[in-house]
Amino acid sequence: MEPIITTDRLILRAFTPQDADQVQILAGEERVARLTESIPHPYPDGLAEEWINNNESLREKDSAFVYAITLKASGTLVGAIGLNNVTHTDAELGYWLGLPYWGQGYCSEAGQALISHTFEQLPFNQIRARTLTENTKSGQVLVRLGFRSTSEILELISIVTTLCRQLLCCIQAPY
Fold it and tell me: For residue 152, what are the contacts with CB-CB under 8 A and spacing of at least 6?
């Protein structure tokens, strides 16, 4: 995968050690952590550095491709987006944004760029995503990106599934 992806307003790039303080500030916000599965609150010192180093290691193994979402105009780090649990045919999309940057279309813009780039560069037939049921805004982002909830697909074949706090959206991109 390319190390840098650009859009009209954003640059998606690899995280650097210099990003750690801003990651801790943005991801450490209680409302951000509450709406994800993997961000703890309170956010411990040193975790951002560890997370950045782990992302680089996974990128080198082609197991994950995590990007810093930065504003093109200023270089400001606003969040993260990436493909995790990468196999030879698919991956799982994940993202988070710092609270000051919610509601400005950054996740949709970054997601569209990453998805398009992925299907151009890798032999994937599917990208999955998950969101917590209470994170309705994230669900809306996934819909804007063209994903379909597996619950919609399962209803079509009359299979009923109950999921607790997590809405599994093994969502397929329409590419």
Answer: none
Neighbours of 161 (CB within 10 A): 9
146 φ/ψ sector (left φ>0, alpha ψ -120 to 50, else beta): left
Phi, psi of 116 (to 5 degrees): -60, -45
Peptide bond into 44 cis (omega under 30): no
For residue 156, pLDDT beyond 50:
no
Query: CA separation (Å) from 130 to 135, 163, 166, 169?
Result: 10, 12, 8, 5
Placement of tokens 């409302």 in the chain: 31
Residue 67, strand partner residues:
81
Q: Following DSSP, what letter does each residue of 57-109 receive, concatenated?
A: HHHHTTS-EEEEEEETTT--EEEEEEEES--SSEEEEEEEE-GGGTTSSHHHH
Q: How many residues does the chain have?
A: 175
Quick: pLDDT tens for 23-72: 999 999 999 999 998 999 999 999 999 999 999 999 999 999 999 999 99
